Amino acid sequence: MNLLGDSVEMLFAARCMERGYMVSKPLSDKIRYDLILDCNGVLKRIQIKSASTTARGRFTFKLQSSTGGGYSEDDCDLMVLHPRETEYFVFLLPELFIGRARFNLDPSKHQELINNFDILCIPSLELK
User: How confident is the model at residue 24 (pLDDT cuts 50, 70, 90)?
Assistant: First the structure.
């Protein structure tokens, strides 16, 4: 993991802890998620990605691992995106990241995904 990736994970973990969520980090980098969040007994495997702005204030996120493979529901429960030049996080449910190589974020069109920390307390079965 690089320092930028580590810092984004720490920033997200801090935001979660400020909201009262318990945060755990796997001991291995070989696991296909970055953090585990516990919100009143609801556990979520979280994969975190970051990106810089592209044209016209939009962001393009690569939704693949460093080995080039995409993610499935067996890998993680939620994907959290962090546009580097911002203070917010974007929450993607599996239907928005499974089978996709990229996600193009337009903050003006994806407001419902931004800083939706409440989604962390919804059991995974209810998300489907």
Answer: very high
